[in-house]
From TrEMBL, chains A, B:
InterPro entries, alphabetized: HTH_LacI, LacI/GalR-like_sensor, Lambda_DNA-bd_dom_sf, Peripla_BP_I
Keyword check for Metal-binding: no
Domain HTH lacI-type positions: 22-76
Positions of the UniProt region annotated as Disordered: 1-21
Keywords: DNA-binding, Transcription, Transcription regulation
Protein name, entry field: Transcriptional regulator, LacI family
Keyword Plastid among record annotations: no
Taxonomic lineage of the native organism: Bacteria, Pseudomonadati, Pseudomonadota, Gammaproteobacteria, Oceanospirillales
Species per Swiss-Prot/TrEMBL record: Marinobacterium lacunae
Any one GO MF annotation of this record: transcription cis-regulatory region binding
Length: 352, 352
DNA sequence: CTGTTAGCGCATTCAC
DNA sequence: GTGAATGCGCTAACAG
């Protein structure tokens, strides 16, 4: 397809492009008003006369003007930028959460920078330090465990912070999460009530996953169920974590009635391995996952999942953060939101 | 835990914090040098004397100084920001790709803003327009189909662009992808060569997925295999897409020998449904996915996946983009990289 | 090796 | 309703 000049519109404007695009000054000259008026026409159209507004809009269109947010933010001290740090996004429930969060933020005109910490406090710290250079209007962190320097930097920077996905008594700032210990205990009680007695567990070496499985094992022990075979496999959690895990369990410990996984990704691997062995789920082998928190309920219909009741977690985080940014007060400092969780009873643990 | 003042270090500095943090001028005063020297000490330490460097570093530490990138970028015209637009990130191979891309970019000091287009050209356009306000150093788009305004904006803005995940003759700028038609044909030939004759297919209404499945059906037709049952289900692709799809296929069309899915997520749903029906994979039912492109090969060991040979796709995109940004020439304009793909023969299609 | 001058592009603050 | 002056925090380009 050959380039063809459009002769009817924008006769020589396209050729006169400055590197970096047109500026407010360019627009103001073309429109025959001051640059201040252009700025107002763009951000507060209601305060400008209709005629000027038209002239400005015309000039903006002619020049293809796009405001330079860096310059604007430098003056206004609002970057409309939120930074989110997650341990991982691939094969992870965090992808759902981040997507919901980005969606909510985008609707309010905020852009999202993502940092992947790979479950490392040190990487988190480096990413936080780097991102503070962009003066984000808000920061979201997964978990409540952070390096001392991270904590100090964040406190000093005075940026609104939401810690998510966990619960603690003294959050850095705001907190939206739930107790992983309670999740573990709830899983145990749920499965016990359904008559399961021979358990097994597969987790990756993710601190919160380990805590969930640990709490479950403790609860089981209270019901005289001990020596539950359990595996802690290396992160990241992938399908093969579940496949290898089930294979290993079957070889070394015989077949359990139900295998509890620290994440839905692992559970999917278990299901895949079950399919390859012709094990019928849930009668030959029941499977319990974890996740589904920020997704619609139809996302993991094969698994019994723990999920948030009502609003998506990502949406809740966005709301809390934006409320705080908007009122510019510290009214919500120390705010703690326990999202709670549900146990959804799905096919994979529904015995006939 | 009570806050306790550390009396030995940073005596009164912490109290004197300006809102927004210390500035270059603050550091230069404390260090007793000019602000320019501080700037150099931070970005080009080798060009500053050792003594000055020490003074500057000391002052930086005292003040907890973090450079304001907005101001820096405004002058230098380099934002060290890359924007990536993907149709979705939840339950998607794009999450892998984006993670690999972010990883490579982060190593070179670039931050990544993600925009989710939800397979909508209109949303892509709005996101691109908005992000151009941040003057990103590079933009990555999925696919080669974009609205006219998007194309024009990008061309005029002169930002390096990589279109990924598809192939075409005249890319906007640079291109890193593969042919979805070739993938579809290769899948057909591969499965035929393994002796499969009774096919079925499940896809979501994603343009590229449909093209893959369409090309596969065409190739099968050339081998006298026609009337292949196939479903096009609504996006987004989730586990239940696969579960519902298989259920529907079995009810209406009987059991195929192999079901081809337009993504690994769907294939995982099919495996889950197979497990719930006690169908043994691959003998009762073989499953073919698509994905695994930017992940290590062990990620989807249950599926026969199409994957990139060698380097991760996200890494390749980062490399192409950073090369272009670095040399600041247009030498690589029009660059087209065909990543190709592999068919990995895995358990789920390996018949005994 | 270091300092000075200038200005990036915009919004705040005040005049009118 | 509109405009002029000022400066956000930093770096490019020079001079010394």
């Amino acid at each position: 397809m050959r380039e063809k000049r459009d002769q009817s519109s924008e006769p020589e404007v396209e050729g006169n492009l400055k590197p970096g695009g047109a500026t407010l000054a360019d627009v103001s000259k073309l429109a025959g008003v001051s640059s201040m008026t252009v700025s107002r026409a763009l951000h507060k159209p209601e305060v400008v006369s209709k005629k000027t507004l038209e002239k400005v809009n015309w000039a903006v269109e002619q020049l293809g003007y796009i405001p330079n947010m860096m310059a604007g933010s430098l003056m206004s001290k609002r970057s409309r930028l939120v930074a989110v740090f997650v341990p991982t996004v691939a094969h992870s429930i965090f992808a759902d959460m981040v997507q919901a969060l980005m969606h909510s933020l985008a609707r309010k005109g905020y852009h999202t920078i993502i940092g992947v910490t790979e479950y490392s406090d040190k990487q988190e710290q480096e990413l936080v330090e780097a991102i503070l250079g962009r003066r984000p209007d808000g920061i979201v962190l997964i978990g409540t465990q952070h390096s001392d320097l991270t904590r100090k930097r964040l406190q000093v920077s005075n940026v609104p912070v939401v810690e998510a996905w966990d619960m603690c008594d003294e959050p850095l700032d705001m907190l939206v999460g739930f107790s992983h210990e309670e999740v573990g205990r709830a899983i145990a009680r749920h499965l016990l009530s359904k008559g399961f007695r021979r358990f097994a567990a597969i987790s990756v070496a993710d601190p919160r996953g380990i805590r969930r499985i640990g709490a479950m094992l403790d609860e089981l022990a209270k019901h005289e169920i001990v020596d539950v075979p359990h595996l802690y496999l290396p992160i990241p959690a992938t399908l093969s974590t579940g496949r290898d895990g089930l294979r290993q369990l079957l070889e070394c410990n015989g077949r359990p009635e139900v295998v509890v996984c620290s994440s839905d990704t692992i559970a999917q691997g278990v299901l895949a391995e079950a399919a390859s062995r012709g094990l019928k789920v849930p009668n030959d082998l029941a499977v319990m996952g974890f996740g589904d928190l920020s997704s619609a309920s139809q996302v993991y219909p094969s698994l019994s999942s723990v999920r948030l009741d009502g609003q998506l977690v990502g949406e809740t985080i966005a709301k809390v953060l934006l409320d705080r940014i908007a009122q510019k007060s510290s009214a919500t400092r120390g705010l703690r939101v326990d999202t709670g969780f549900n146990i959804i009873d799905r096919e994979s643990t529904r015995r006939s």
